[in-house]
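Students often ask why we bother encoding 3D structure as a string. The short answer is that it lets us treat folding as translation between two languages. Here is a chain of 91 residues written in the first language.
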Amino acid sequence: MRATLLFELILAFSETFFRAQGNTETADYMRKVLTLKQAGSDVDAHLQKVADILLADGPVDIGGLIDRINAEVDELLGRGSGEEVPGPASP
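And here it is in the second language, the structure alphabet:
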């Protein structure tokens, strides 16, 4: 179970990473494999290709990617515009 969850997280992260880099073909492939996996299909045939893609991309600037994603989230939530976002209501 834990390995399955980890594999799904890797696929989801990879899709986000490649889409953020503008590599939509690879991002779409990662989405396809993730969708197949979540539908219960056997994705063993795809594992080597996924590994090859991830290894071929070279070192990943995780910090830069996280900063970029956080900035996009802040912008979507209105935090980047100086607009105040209401927090959860107090009980």
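Translate back mentally: The two ends are 37 Å apart (CA to CA). Keep this in mind for the problem set.
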